[in-house]
Amino acid sequence: MSIVIRDVREHELDSILALNNAAGPTILPLDAARFRKFFDTAEYFRIAERDGTLAGFLVGFGSEADHDSSNFHWFREHCDRFFYIDRIVIASRRRGGGVGRAFYADAQSHAELRYPQLTCEVFLEHDADPVRLFHGSFGFHEIGQHVMPESGIRASMMAKNLCSYEWVRDTYGDALPGEPWLSRPRGALPRSAAAEPAGA
Length: 200
What we know:
Blueprint: E1 3-7, H1 13-21, H2 32-41, E2 44-50, E3 53-62, H3 70-78, E4 83-90, H4 99-111, E5 117-123, H5 129-137, E6 141-147, E7 154-161, H6 164-172
Parallel strand pairs: 4-5
Antiparallel strand pairs: 1-2, 2-3, 3-4, 5-7, 6-7
């Protein structure tokens, strides 16, 4: 019954896209080209497996990314540096089983070494209370609201301060040790040449 979180593989994109588009009204549907762009450019694109089957995925971008989401750009206007969770989708049969918390713990362990804030949005048009409660219990708070021009959906814009970031920055700067667990997820680009961990 263990949860395994790992980098996405190219041959899995069709299955992940189908999971995204079956998620219901709280997740915007996408096409294959958009998913391919995630694969090519996202700093963090990982899946969760439970009992050997796909249980969900999470896509995230650092604040310096070339990402065209209006919600991402809202955070750029209101936050200095951040790691943005673009979407998290959990298979319906796996919801409530800890996959979401495992994903957020994994994403936070990546983000807190590199960014002072973790950000995401929660749609308010549908039954958002369970999702808002989940984020609140994980330390997020609302810093504003945004109406997405492409869909007219109102979103609660949420952020979580990452308390480890300041110590890591003051101690290591952009030169993190070359430990395997510090390596960036697949396809992640460094902020600068000095930011890439040795041996990554």
